[in-house]
Write a structure and sequence with these properties.
Layout: H1 14-18, H2 21-28, E1 50-56, H3 68-74, E2 78-83, E3 89-95, H4 109-126, E4 130-136, E5 142-148, H5 149-172, H6 181-184, H7 186-191, E6 197-202, H8 211-218, E7 223-230, E8 240-245, E9 251-256, E10 265-268, E11 271-277, H9 282-292
Parallel strand pairs: 3-4, 3-6, 6-7, 7-11
Antiparallel strand pairs: 1-2, 4-5, 8-9, 10-11
Length: about 300
Amino acid sequence: MTAALDNPGVRLTADGLIALRPLAAQIAGDPALARLPGGFVTRRKGHGQEVADVRLYAEGDDVRHLDRGTTARTGALHVRQFQEERDRETLLVADFRPSMLWGISRCFRSVAAAEILALIGWRVVAEGGRVGLLAITAGAPVLVRARGKTRGMLDAIGGMVRAHANVLAMAANGQRTEPDLADALVRAERIAGRGGEIVLASGFDAAGAGLADRLALLSRRRAPRLIVVEDADGGRLPRGRYPIRLADGRLARVSLTGGPAAPAAAEIAGWPAVRLDAGAPLTSTARALAAAFPADRWP
């Protein structure tokens, strides 16, 4: 692998994705309005077995929920409140096909996609869920079965790092096959648990004619979440003529004249999606994710 492929923003590292855990926890703790209409984000409370908090006894409370320790320390009756338990399983789908291996600012789109999925994954496991991974590449995909807690997220991170290193090596050797995204998502249907969610971070290049049907099939028993990873904001790029190499190896020049920034919301094959800028600071990305996927709108 050449020295250029070891530069920050090109090479994906496990340390970089693990370091996103505090940021994910910080943003998750901040209440945020969702981009979708309909109220505020609230913490759910119910009659599960996980304690949400302890408060003073009020008339009508169930005496079976008395907290003996707090009552003994304070001399006043206290009761426990329990939060609803939900088994959340999230399949992180990382698009590492050759079209994702480029960027004009902070990092490759493939690296940004991995960072976005890591922020989501750390939040999922912190809230008691399980995460798995499907990394789509020009060759064989990398699969990681869903597991909970920190171990599950570390397994997913390891899978992303391995897959990304492989695609960089393939690209350096001239292998630039671009499989259709729709065909690659067949494996997602096989490994994603029913009732869970599938979070796909992709540029949606070479999506394939069957993407809409594939997403419709996935949505029958799962909740697909689409994230468009972009790094070509016409309002940010300087004007000029730029040389590019096409997928078939030919050289061409494109003219950029600038333009308005892309909207935050998008639609892919008839499905709502969220646009995120690969060049944006990670703090801004984390806040955008918290607004786009609030905890009270899990499947």
